[in-house]
């Protein structure tokens, strides 16, 4: 498959506590590493995929470095304790973008996601910039042509930009256009939006497209809005731009948030998504290891990913 590379087993290392007890296990000991892209062999498991891509952030005039995120996050996940749900993770490797061909890499990820979903796997993608979302979302839409797909974005930005070509700021406008082509409704909710980081033009576009928008200031009491959105769709794709978190929790992104939504608040919004039975796809994007000198931001992102896999029913 084009652009695909297997994940290195060297990324999955950690402390071995099995002398204490046979079930004293960590993720590196329970994850399955696949030497080939073969989702058909792993029905009802969770496909862990990396999208090693910087091109969308570069085009959007952001701080590059997110291409290194998938492997950095694997290392951060590896030594965490393995509990319920974590043994379903199957590492199916990375889709690697070769600059400047963002569109080719997006098409490769789109096809990989569709293939995983049609093989009855769920997909957990580690970006990459938020250009990841067009490819991931398109793959989900392709896999469920007769179902209502809802997109939940936890993000400081609406990412509905008009541009001559795809960037990390255009994915949801692209998905709206794809829904038009596929003659289906566009169901998009964005929680954590920073009004100070989105122009009036972007707010107008969100209104035109019927987007559910919840600002960062109001996420503390947004459970009812999340529940309403969950009930309105058949299948859910959750995308998490890590810049939704406050800068003191997540400095290692292209655009750190001065206010943001704390991890504890974010998890209260995520838990019902994971437990509702409709969640088919998740990604975490925009982590930039170049700006994570002490590794603390990777730990925050890894705990978020760990919690999602643990709750995901």
UniProtKB/TrEMBL annotation:
Which Pfam families did the record assign? Arginase
The pathway is: Amino-acid degradation; L-histidine degradation into L-glutamate; L-glutamate from N-formimidoyl-L-glutamate (hydrolase route): step 1/1
Note on how the cofactor is bound: Binds 2 manganese ions per subunit.
Keyword annotations? Histidine metabolism, Hydrolase, Manganese, Metal-binding
GO BP annotations of the record are: L-histidine catabolic process to glutamate and formamide; L-histidine catabolic process to glutamate and formate; putrescine biosynthetic process from arginine, via agmatine
The UniProt annotation places Mn(2+) 1 binding at 130, 155, 157, 159, 241, 243
Q: Which residues bind Mn(2+) 2?
A: 155, 157, 241, 243
Q: Which residues form a coiled coil?
A: none
Manganese listed as a keyword: yes
Provide a Gene Ontology MF annotation, just one. manganese ion binding
EC number from the UniProt entry = 3.5.3.8
Cofactors: Mn(2+)
> Which domain of life does the UniProt lineage start with?
Bacteria
Q: Which reaction does it catalyse?
A: N-formimidoyl-L-glutamate + H2O = formamide + L-glutamate
Q: PANTHER family annotated for this entry?
A: ARGINASE/AGMATINASE, FORMIMIDOYLGLUTAMASE
NCBIfam families in the cross-refs:
hutG
Described by its record, this protein's role is as follows:
Catalyzes the conversion of N-formimidoyl-L-glutamate to L-glutamate and formamide.
What the record says about family reads: Belongs to the arginase family.
Q: What is this protein called?
A: Formimidoylglutamase
Source organism (scientific name): Citrobacter freundii
Q: What does the record give as the organism's lineage?
A: Bacteria, Pseudomonadati, Pseudomonadota, Gammaproteobacteria, Enterobacterales
Q: Which gene encodes it?
A: hutG
């Amino acid at each position: 498959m084009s652009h695909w590379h297997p994940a290195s087993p060297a990324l999955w290392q950690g402390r071995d506590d099995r002398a204490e007890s046979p079930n004293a296990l960590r993720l590196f000991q329970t994850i399955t590493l696949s030497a080939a892209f073969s989702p058909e062999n792993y029905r009802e498991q969770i496909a862990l995929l990396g999208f090693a891509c910087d091109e969308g952030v570069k085009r959007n005039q952001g701080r590059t470095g997110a291409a290194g995120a998938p492997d950095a996050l694997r290392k951060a996940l590896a030594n965490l304790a393995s509990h319920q749900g974590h043994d379903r993770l199957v590492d199916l490797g990375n889709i690697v973008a070769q600059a400047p061909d963002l569109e080719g890499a997006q098409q490769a990820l789109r096809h990989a996601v569709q293939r995983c979903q049609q093989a009855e796997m769920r997909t957990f993608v580690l970006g990459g910039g938020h250009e990841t979302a067009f490819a991931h979302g398109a793959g989900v839409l392709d896999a469920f042509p007769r179902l209502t797909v809802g997109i939940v974005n936890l993000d400081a930005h609406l990412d509905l930009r008009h541009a001559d070509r795809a960037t990390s700021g255009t994915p949801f406008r692209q998905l709206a256009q794809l829904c038009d082509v596929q003659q289906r409704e566009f169901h998009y909710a964005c929680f954590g939006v920073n009004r100070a980081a989105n122009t009036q033009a972007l707010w107008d576009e969100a209104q035109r497209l019927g987007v559910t928008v919840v600002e960062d200031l109001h996420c503390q009491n947004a459970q009812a809005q999340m529940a309403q959105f969950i009930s309105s769709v058949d299948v859910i794709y959750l995308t998490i731009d890590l810049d939704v978190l406050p800068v003191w929790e997540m400095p290692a992104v292209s655009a750190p948030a001065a206010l943001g939504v704390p991890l504890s608040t974010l998890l209260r919004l995520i838990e019902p998504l994971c437990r509702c039975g409709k969640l088919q796809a998740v990604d975490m994007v925009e982590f930039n290891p170049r700006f994570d000198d002490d590794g603390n931001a990777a730990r925050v992102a890894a705990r978020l990913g760990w919690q999602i896999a643990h709750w995901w029913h």
